[in-house]
Amino acid sequence: MHASVGDQLVQHGRVVGQHDQISEVVEVIGTEGNPPYRVRLENGHEAVISPGPDCQVRHRDEGHR
């Protein structure tokens, strides 16, 4: 998994009825785009996370195609 500042990290809900959590990558702590990442959650809080298999990176430039 590789991300850059400004990309979105989407953590998919694990159970029925649980919504996806979308956060913005504000800092890449790992080397060469690898985790961990500092992210800003939708509620404004920030956290350092190492995404698991239930996450995907939505790259900034994907929406501009």
From TrEMBL:
InterPro entries: DUF1918. Residues 1-57 form the DUF1918 domain. Residues 56-65 have a biased composition (Basic and acidic residues). It holds the Pfam family DUF1918. Residues 45-65 are annotated as: Disordered. This is DUF1918 domain-containing protein. It comes from Streptomyces tropicalis. The lineage of its organism: Bacteria, Bacillati, Actinomycetota, Actinomycetes, Kitasatosporales.
